[in-house]
Design a protein that fits this description.
Layout (H helix, E strand, L loop, with lengths): L5 E2 L2 E2 L9 E5 L4 H11 L3 E6 L19 H6 L4 E4 L5 H12 L3 E4 L5 H4 L4 H7 L4 E6 L14 H7 L19 H24 L3 E6 H8 L1 H10 L16 E5 L5 E5 L3 H10 L15 H6 L1 H12 L4 H10 L3 E4 L3 H5 L2 H5 L3 E6 L2 E6 L22 H7 L4 H9 L4
Parallel strand pairs: 3-4, 3-6, 4-5, 6-7, 7-8
Antiparallel strand pairs: 1-2, 9-10, 10-11, 12-13
Helix pairs in contact: 1-7, 7-8
Length: 405
């Protein structure tokens, strides 16, 4: 992508990952999220898919112009190449693709990459500058090494589900948190490896496990348990260590979240919102530890006040006092959220079925418009990618006739 490309009326500089080629044997969520963010930063991402349906996330649903919502979310800006990797010729094509890459990332079933001739150690021996990323459920060693892993299962195994939901029952998160955790750590690790390669010339062998990524997100609960001998437990929208911190009713039957993070905020809240300035110094109310101990009384007092106000008035009053609050929004509310609109976060993305609205990636570079490329059809770029490898037309035709691509 040349410097100075014009996008939406703004002149841009080079994208951060211009000139970087990523080859991905990926499916589902974790790995595609990592490589989509690489594409967001300007990398050329070649997504290698099965000829018989491709990434199985393509078939999760047909909600977006006949396409799967997960796939549309995670795969814009990539090139789709179909290969039959069960054949020697298909594996030879894959080897040619990897030979010209900066990053090779895979999240196949345990052992599958090695059977395809793509073991990280072998690839790095051939090209020490290559960065390889092996993503799995539980890692390449240990008793769970060969265990199949999906987001919900990993959330349960890593105890995330045990601390999510209301007190009465555990729940998985509403988004695939274990997948997202692994994808984000893979993305950041690749960026770090590229920086190191720029100074040392050496690539890297990176391993990311969904289980370990999710366990890292459990840090607060793990340290709390070690310090107190008991786990914090589930608290719904509340917080086991902070009060008041919950959802409260309004006069117009909405819910507003209020969070008091420190005792200085409580002093301001007690006086300016509750109209009870004496509670700022009362030892039964003045500290967070005391308020957590008397959480039910605190919540009842706050709810009694919020229930007399409409949600708009309540939020405005809290904003005036510099007290943190939020509305309990629906997905529809988020789609039309005024903050996203005001910050111009939406772009039009083309898909094989039609145009959709898509959010810009959440990293914003001043003066730089990041790309939101099209969502690829299965195998859409196979011929282009093979031509870029230097394959002559007759060889491409032969591979197509043999069912290799």
């Amino acid at each position: 992508m040349p410097a100075g490309r014009q996008r939406r009326g703004r002149l841009t500089a080079d994208l951060p990952l211009d000139g970087i080629t990523v080859v991905a044997l990926e499916a589902a969520v974790a790995a595609p999220l990592a490589t989509r963010h690489m594409a967001d930063l300007g990398a050329r991402v070649v997504k290698v898919e099965r000829r018989d349906g491709g990434d199985f996330a393509r078939a999760y649903d047909d909600s977006v112009h006949g396409l799967a919502s997960h796939f549309v979310w995670l795969n814009r800006g990539k090139q789709s190449v179909t290969l039959d990797l069960k054949t020697d010729r298909g594996r030879a094509v894959l080897a040619d693709l990897v030979a010209g890459a900066d990053v090779f990332l895979q999240n196949l079933a345990p052992g599958a990459a090695a059977r395809l001739g793509c073991a990280s150690a072998d690839l790095r021996e051939r090209d020490p500058r290559l960065i390889t990323v092996d993503m799995s459920g539980y890692g390449a060693s240990g008793p769970y090494r060969d265990k199949r892993a999906y987001d919900m299962l990993v959330q349960c195994e890593a105890a995330l589900a045990a601390v999510t939901g209301p007190a009465q029952s555990p729940a998985k998160t509403g988004v695939p948190a274990a997948d997202i955790a692994a994808g984000v750590y893979a993305f950041s690790a690749v960026l770090a490896a590229l920086v190191r390669r720029g100074t040392t010339g050496e690539g890297a062998s990176i391993e990311i496990s969904m289980f370990e990524a999710t366990a890292e997100w459990m840090g607060y609960q793990l340290y709390y348990l070690q310090g107190t001998g008991r786990a914090p437990g589930r608290s719904g929208l509340s917080h086991p260590s902070v009060a008041p911190y919950d959802s409260y009713p309004t006069a117009d039957e909405q819910e507003v979240l209020i969070g008091i993070q420190n005792d200085r905020e409580w002093r301001r809240f007690a006086d300016g919102f509750l109209g009870r300035p004496e509670l700022a110094d009362d030892p039964e109310w003045a500290t967070n530890v005391a308020r957590v101990r008397h959480r039910r009384i605190v919540d009842a007092l706050v709810a009694g006040r919020t229930a007399t106000m409409a949600a708009d008035d309540l939020v405005a009053r809290l904003d005036d006092l510099a007290i943190a609050s939020a509305r309990l929004n629906s997905v529809a509310n988020l789609l039309d959220h005024p903050q996203l609109a005001a910050r111009d976060r939406w772009r039009t993305v083309t898909t094989p079925g039609g145009e959709i609205r898509a959010l810009l990636p959440p990293f914003t570079f001043a003066g730089l418009e990041l790309p939101t490329g099209p969502v690829p059809a299965l195998g859409e770029h196979t011929e282009d990618v093979l031509r870029a490898l230097g394959y002559p037309p007759e060889r491409i035709t032969e591979l197509q006739a043999a069912g290799v691509v």
